Structure formats: structure tokens, C-alpha cells
Amino acid sequence: MNDIFEKVVNKMGPLGMYADDAHGYYTFPKLSGPIGPRMVFNGKSNLNWSLNNYLGLANHPEVMQADAEAAAQFGMAYPMGARMMSGNSDYHDTLERDLASFIKKPEVILLNYGYQGVISAIDALVDRHDVIVYDAEAHACIIDGVRLHMGKRFVYTHNNIESLEQQLQRANKLVQQSGGGILVITEGVFGMSGSQGKLKEIADLKKKYNFRLFVDDAHGFGTMGETGAGTGEEQGCMDGIDIYFSTFAKSMAGIGAFIGSDPQIVKFLRYNMRSQIYAKSLPMPMVIGAIKRLELLRTRKELKANLWNIVNALQNGLREHGFNIGVTTTPVTPVLLNGTVAQATQITHDLRENFHIFCSIVIYPVVPKGVIMLRLIPTAVHTLADVDETIKAFSEIKRKLDNNEYSPEFIQQTLA
Ligand SMILES: Cc1ncc(COP(=O)(O)O)c(C=O)c1O
Q: What range defines the domain where residue 25 resides?
């Protein structure tokens, strides 16, 4: 018999294996100062491209004021209890109505957190007779929801409609026997590559196959579509999305999430989502703060316009300077370089210490071996000067990488 702690100590996992060297710098870094494009890291001001504060709402004065007033009036505990038991309020209802009318879905249910909300919604919607068909690059919360599922699940190649059709055909055969249904799950905007889920093409497949479509639009809400109502609006297929999910953690710069759907589905979710029934409801400042954020997201068109000015300047500039930014059609901006994990850490260190640029770094297994992804999240509060500074720094980094200046041997030689 083994002690489970033995395994925990010896197998720290794909990220934990770097903990001893990385903690506090590459992982769990501390950014301080007001949230925005310039924040203090390791004692120095850095140009920051790593926050999903797409519209710059995180410390918008009106948002800060609404948060502070709500906290002063209600504290952080109010209301106590799960919503079903004792934790409901008019504010919770108002936020749901405001969200529903904005995304043009008949009803909305608020969720305490996005991650657990997605898991729990999937869990509530399917039983062992049903089949889930999902995109291979789906976010961890979708994968975890699928893991809970007692019935069959089929994964299709990322954004590949042919592969999806093959899986739908398999799923179709199964549900003919089981008497269940099919739930297709994908994302509006994939948070690593910045590609959009092919929502319109997927929704169109409903003419051929009988299924329901669940879309996680965490990165699309507030950034995509004419009004900012998300990737369904962008692709003109909101009606084809049966379950529309987004979180408040990105454009809304808060905590919480929501699902929009038909009244009968929302009613079912209210009474069957275990993450909501057995957990305390969202505190009042989060709800009142979200009402304010949504009002600004809806009415201050300049926020999304600024965001896209920065996105376009950054992405066009990077492409013009010979960078591979993959297939993004959204604000998420990956910069793909070839190199080892050791080189990735050296580049990140160089960027932070010498160029004072802070961005996320993504390595294997999230990207293939030999690929380094520097991931930039432009926001409405960045400036064109920030973009220029970044492109200059990245060009220098790339020159050094191509010149082999990030090889461990080179570093040792220069130190010797
Ligand atoms: C695609 C996607 N879904 C769900 C979540 C989880 O949302 P939350 O942070 O509200 O738990 C995230 C990350 O925030 C995400 O990127």
C-alpha cells in the first residue's frame, strides 16, 4: 500500500514540476499598483499585456465607485445562503434581466463562478443516455464537465467541421439505441489561439443532426459582435446557440458568470445545478458592480472601439514585423516562436528585466514541443505608444533568439 502523499510529493504535475524554480517569478508573480497597462512587477514598472481586462473596466472610476458604495451598504456577506434558500435579491433578478435583454436571450441565470458553473451546467443537462460531442481544445472547465458525464463522449478535432460531423454520426447511432440526446460543446473564442469557434457552421448542422449547442464565450462577451454581445452576435447565429455561457472574469472585470437560454431551460438549471443549489449566492457588491459594468459595456461604445484600435495596431504591427501570430481573429494575440523551455524562460526574464514588458508565456504541453507562445491581451486602456514599444522589444527578442543568444551555452560563454 502506498501513501497518497508520496505520489503528491514525487509527481508535482506538468506545471508543479517547475514550482521550485519558477514560483514567484514565472508562476504566481505579484503585480501591484492600479490595474492597467503599467503595473509594478519585481520592483519595477512593467508594460502589462497579461490581464483579461479587455474593456479597461477593472478600475474604471464609475465601476470602483459602484463597488465601493455597494460594499459600504451591504458588506461582503449579504445575502447569506444559496439563492434557492435565502440568498436571493431584487439586484440578482435585475442583473439577470439586464443580461438577458443585452444578449437577446429570453432568460438568464447567474452563476457564482464560471469554472464551476460550466461543470455544473453540463452535469445538470446530460444523463447517461446522452452523448456529449466537444471540441478538442475546449477549456478545462468543459473538460471537467465532460469528465463528470456518465454516458458517452466524443471529441472532434479543433474547429474541424468534418471531424465534428463524423462524431455527430457516431453519436446519432448511439442515441438511437439509448433514447438520449446530443449536446455539442464549444467555445466562442479560444483563449490561447484567439480563433473563433465555427459557431455558425456548427449551428447550421442542426438541419442535418438533432443536437443542442452549448457555447462558452468567456473571451467573446464584451469584445465580439456589433454591440459586444459576443461571438454569437459576431457570426449572426445567437439563435442557434441553445446555451450561451460567459464569465464576468474578463470583459466585465469581476467575479461571477451567467447562462442565457430559453425560460424552460433556465428554470431547469435554477432547480438542478448543484453548484448553485449547494453554494452561497454571489455577494451584493459583485452583483451591483456587475450591473454597473454591464451598463458601461452596453453604453460606452468607445471602450470596445479603443480595444479594437489597439488589437488591430498590435496584430498588424506584429505581422508586418514578421511575427507568426497564428489564426487569431479576436483580441487574443499569441506570438509563436520556435525554441526550448529553457529559452522561453530566458526570453521572459529578458522581457521583464530589460524591456520591462510583462506577458504570459505558454509552453509545452499547452503548445507543441519546440514552440514558445508569448500571449498578449490588448485592452481598451493600452495606447498606440505601448504597441510600438512592444513591437520594438519583440523584434529585438526575436533577433536575439534567431542569433542563438538565448542558448544556455551562449549565456555561460558571456558570463565566463
Ligand atoms: C473559456 C473559459 N471558460 C471558463 C472560465 C472560467 O471562468 P471563471 O474565472 O469565472 O471561473 C475561463 C476563465 O476564466 C475561461 O477562459
A: 4-54+301-415
